[in-house]
Structures
1.
Amino acid sequence: MTVTRPARLTGGALAAVLALVPFVWILCDLAALGSPEDLFRSWAGHRFRPGPARAATTLLDPLLCLAAAGTALAALRSRHAAAALAATGAVTLAVRLPGLWAHGTGPLVTALAETALGAGLLLTALVGRRPPAGPGEPVPTRPRPAPAAAAGVLLAVAAVVLLTGEVDRVTGLDLRLAVDRFTGGRSALGPALGVPPGWLAAVLVALHLTAAVSAFTTARHTRPLGLLAGGLLLGTGLAELTRLARLHLGDDIRYVTAPEPDLAALATALYCALAGAAVLALLAGRGAPDAAPAPRPAAATPPPPYPRPPGW
């Protein structure tokens, strides 16, 4: 399926605005904190001393900004951007839904704007699709079977690892804290634009499983969906690795008793980072060309009539 030119222009404009929203918030955080280093430390989970300046964004915001910018470029350059528009719109809509009941005017307005833009991308991808005009029109290539299968295995294992870790965390909490972990209640403190950790884990598990199934079936939409899943997997893995490094090696934190190294969390974060990078490398190459259609047999000449008419 391809996308009509009006749908491409509309999707590109919506994706560009969607990339602009978190970019403006990141600029506001830079102005409030004073330096990119402090912002990076905030994204890495560093707990600042009490003060008026706090970052509103998380590492998810620059990742979504990059994904939306890439989708905008894909929509303007290619007629095969339906999968990229749908994937970016669905993920944005899913991660911003908890912001609709967040506290504060700024996060609520941002959630309303991004959910509307995400729904617009989904609608544009669905309404603007059309079949190829003819047999000679190019169609999106399928990923090669071996790299696609490897990426599918990595994404499926990542989904299982994230799901297992989230279940383990939730089972150790009481009911109110467990619900707040998914809904973003007052007990789940974090940045203004932060997504509740349980909700984010559920979205990532669903994304990774969907991308894995798509990779196993070598569907034509595997590449944009897998690249989005791999990018988020790489970003979340690196963020967790940085947080654990600051927790155990940072020289700006003092403990009465140093915490024991969380080997399970370290192994999970390392796997997510490496698997995300591997998925990006596996799916970034050229796809497999479609097999050439079998030549049609020449039409057989009908036998002459019998008996032959006069003058045949």
Note: The chain has a mean pLDDT of 84.
2.
Amino acid sequence: MMSHNHLVKYTNLSQHMNSHENRSVPFCNCEYPAVTRSRHTAKKVERCKCGEDNSTRLDWIWDAEGGHPDTKIINGTEIVFHPVYSQGTAVIRGTQPLQYGRHHYWEIKILSALAGTDIMLGIGTDKVDLLSHRFKFASQLGLDDQSWGYSYRGVTQHNGQFKYYGKKFSQGRIIGIYVDMFRGVLEFYLNRRSQGRAYANIPLDSSVRIYPMICSTSAKSAMKLINAASFADSLVFSCMKVISKYPKLLKQTHSIPGLRKFTEDLWFLQFKEPKKTDEFQRNNLLLEDEALLCGMKKKKLDKMISQSQQQNTTVEYTNEEDIYKDMMTAEHSKKRTTSNSSSGSSDDEELAKMVSREFFCNH
């Protein structure tokens, strides 16, 4: 039977995944052609090229030879999952493993509307069985400790554990994947804006081969690899990471001929950092087991302990009810000594208001 804490986490995870406020906006305002448009209308819509001119470098492409039978790979860059209908989960990986000691960055443009059980982008080791869920609908990337995935629902998964992460994505979005194979860090970008560090436990053992991966359960879902590059971990790279955080300094770097090449090669470092919204912070708070501190003011508890230490006394609590009782008593005594009695409000009413304001959860 599901425990209360797990039930709360599952409920809030579902709310997070279904929240309309968590949806992202398209990268551009282009009209994306529907899969069946040519069958029903004579209107011709040109394929959007927005975002594809920053870099055309492709250090690797999608593996067509060892590809999933339920996928269609075009020119090594464009993938159509389940071209006819979907009967499970299809997984595709890149042709080359990520090199250790280097920084890897690649971008994927979502060409179709996404729906269904899950569509995930990320990485996985050579131990991932690409056909294990061919006839099962699953969020395959991150089901075990051999892969890491970012879902189109806005959450990440590793070792079977989902966690709140970024915004949802669908047609028209550009997803960037940054893997630091020198420090073992994985980070995702949405429309060229960092979503923050996702994981910092990527294995750095040279015997483990890690590949770029995508999985999808959605019929006729299509996406395209628009660039893929790697860079050595060097002083130049570290300096550019710092310079990119300061717009004025970055502008000066662009104007110096000898440094302009570095800014052009490391263009993806110049993206904006994420903003920690109230919703993001609240959702992350719900992931922690902080039921005991849910409605109480920790500073007041610390103050009580400090006062007791000054008086050479000890404070022992057997359960949270004792904490609430002592804190309410202290607050109530303070109210009675510092405030004048007002007409129409009794001590009991004042205590009830204080308890309601200070000691109950709002979740």
Note: Residues 349 and 355 are 10 Å apart (CA to CA).
3.
Amino acid sequence: MSEEKIEHAVQQALTREGIADEVIAAGQFSPRGQTGSLFAGGLAGGSLGEVGGSVGGAVGEAAGVIGGMRANAAAHGMPEFMLVGVTADGVYGFEGRSRSKEPGAMVFKVARAGLEVSVHQRVNVRVLELIHPESDSRIELEGSRIPLTHSKDVIEALSEG
């Protein structure tokens, strides 16, 4: 998926919301802990499903993965998948899994003025923290290391500004 398509999709969502900012970077993210929840849910579901044999184990694992991801997203008050866009003035998060279609509802909007950005490297994800010290608010996201999600582009744009 080209970088231009994901930026265009987020730009469409900003326009829909009446925001005139120009997207300089966009990528796909999930709430922090999503990958760990996926593994934990899969392990738990697979163990429970083993009672039904190999098919039961596979079904249980799949159900556990989905359940783990949904539980983590709900705990953070965010959707499982988001498109995050960066402009000169703000950072915007929208509900959305597709990197080429206009995303759904706005999940968050954060001004870049006074924003602190922290990035933690993990084995298979990058954790992005958007911290506003004055209000003591924090948004914690994780982006895949797979290049087609463009999470690295968002992190680089935030690190430059």
Note: The radius of gyration is 17 Å.
4.
Amino acid sequence: MKYIAIDLGLKRIGLAYSAHKDIVTPLKAVIRKNRNQASTEVKKIIDEWEVDAVVVGVPLGGSSEDEMKRRIAHFMNLVDFKGEVFFQDEAGSSKEAEALIKGEIKQIRDGRIDSISAMIILQRYLRKIKQSQKT
């Protein structure tokens, strides 16, 4: 199964890809100008990589969970993705991404951190699947 993870933000959309359960690759982030432009670019990437499922980071358990899921559903409706959409807790993924690249690059807001965050979200999701298959 081929996956794309999305770390959906108001300015940048981080993306990561996996076709193997053990390898996740961050992709170039989409710089968001407006939701139509962003959804068109994300759809193009999903189609290009022939994705079966999308994993979207969401803050689970918080007071904003329902609102975020509503926004994500609206965005994915604009993307017009026909495959499965899964939610994965994104808690701490941005901080973890920043720690991974600390000292490697300056804190340029070009989407690299957002895509590494998407990579972490997808790694968490794939780990969860792997663990559930063992039981």
Note: The longest helix spans residues 112-134.
